[in-house]
Structure to design on (404 residues):
């Protein structure tokens, strides 16, 4: 740690972006402490937990932070998760309980550790930011989504596809009241895309506080040696494998994607949906052989699906960025994406950019690449060629916020 700086405290609920921000700051020598809900260093008892919970806990570690000061609350988290479930908490009640639990512990770390800057993600930043301001520290908020406007869009979308059930309940009013206070306490608010920045401005957040910093990514082990193979033609024996990775929700474009598959019944295409099902799915889509519902998997399994697919489709109506786009590019996987997220796709270079999120637009894009596999091969050859933020770049961008 440089002598003239106390460094950054990063408050990290979950393994968002695989700890990219604390990793980047640690690489530059400016991470004072990582405060996180769960941490499972090699040999920790948490890595022995059976089932999906154990696999996910086992991924709550990175060697890049092996020498960092990490304050974790794993034992308390496991106990509280059992308590919350016993009390029947779910949905927003569970999220708010978990967020409050984490904030209290992160604020305690801010009280105990000398720093110059406190970073926290949105919706869990209020308590640590209050402590930071009492101590004269700078505060940087990492906005994880397009904010209040995103949830208003989700509510508007429900009437377009009633077959997919009602919209999920919105957050309680207090959720965004606390968020607005977080924004007021933040010296800087980092958004990952221009789409998110515009959404925050519409919610009344001053543009002068906003800084667009795309998500950083460094290739997975083995990605540099990975060679993508595209057949000369797709057939019934070797269909085009289309990947959707993420929460299967209306705002993610699931209705349009599934209806697009109906328009493509004449082509050898298989759609694989990896992630939680977050909306009602009509039976006609559940029973189609060309649509495979994989469900939630670990991060390493998502990477395996990226390797084994021919194209990623990301038809979101609203997304803060869409990290899976960058991960897919790491495996030279072409992308078909909407414009309402981080701009990873360069239209006609490494994928296709949808003009709108609709069944017709998605079907047209998928038909184009299914009938011309050589186009997919060309997109794969240019995957990741454009500007991409590495961890060194990310660290430098965040350190500039400390100086500004």
């Amino acid at each position: 740690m440089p002598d003239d700086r106390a460094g950054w405290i990063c408050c990290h609920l979950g393994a968002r972006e695989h700890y990219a921000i604390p990793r980047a700051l640690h690489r530059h020598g400016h991470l004072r402490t990582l405060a996180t809900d769960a941490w499972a260093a090699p040999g920790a008892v948490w890595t022995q937990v059976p089932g999906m919970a154990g696999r996910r806990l086992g991924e709550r570690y990175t060697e890049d932070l092996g020498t960092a000061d990490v304050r974790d609350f794993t034992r308390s988290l496991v106990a509280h998760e059992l308590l919350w479930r016993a009390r029947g908490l779910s949905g927003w009640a569970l999220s708010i309980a978990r967020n409050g639990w984490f904030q209290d512990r992160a604020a305690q770390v801010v009280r105990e550790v000398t720093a110059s800057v406190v970073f926290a993600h949105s919706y869990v930043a209020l308590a640590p930011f209050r402590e930071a301001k009492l101590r004269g520290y700078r505060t940087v908020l990492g906005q994880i989504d397009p904010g209040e406007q995103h949830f208003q869009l989700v509510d508007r979308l429900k009437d377009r596809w009633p077959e997919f059930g009602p919209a999920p309940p919105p957050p309680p009013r207090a959720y965004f009241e606390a968020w607005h206070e977080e924004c007021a306490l933040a010296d800087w608010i980092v958004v990952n895309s221009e789409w998110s920045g515009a959404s925050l401005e519409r919610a009344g957040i001053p543009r002068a506080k906003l800084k667009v910093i795309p998500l950083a990514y460094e290739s997975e082990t083995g990605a540099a040696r990975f060679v993508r193979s595209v057949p000369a033609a797709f057939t019934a024996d070797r269909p085009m494998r289309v990947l959707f990775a993420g929460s299967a929700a209306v705002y993610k474009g699931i209705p349009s994607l599934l209806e697009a598959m109906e328009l493509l019944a004449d082509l050898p295409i298989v759609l694989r949906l990896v992630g939680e099902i977050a909306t009602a799915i009509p039976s006609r889509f559940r029973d189609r052989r060309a649509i495979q519902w994989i469900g939630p998997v670990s991060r390493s399994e998502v990477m395996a699906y990226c390797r084994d697919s021919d194209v990623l489709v990301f038809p979101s109506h609203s997304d803060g960025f869409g990290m899976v786009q960058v991960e897919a590019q790491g495996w030279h996987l072409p992308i078909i994406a909407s414009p309402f997220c981080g701009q990873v796709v360069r239209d006609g270079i490494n994928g296709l950019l949808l003009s709108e999120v609709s069944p017709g637009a998605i079907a047209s894009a998928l038909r184009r690449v299914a009938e011309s596999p050589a186009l997919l091969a060309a997109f794969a050859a240019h995957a990741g060629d454009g500007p991409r933020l590495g961890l060194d770049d990310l660290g430098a961008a965040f350190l500039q916020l400390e100086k500004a």
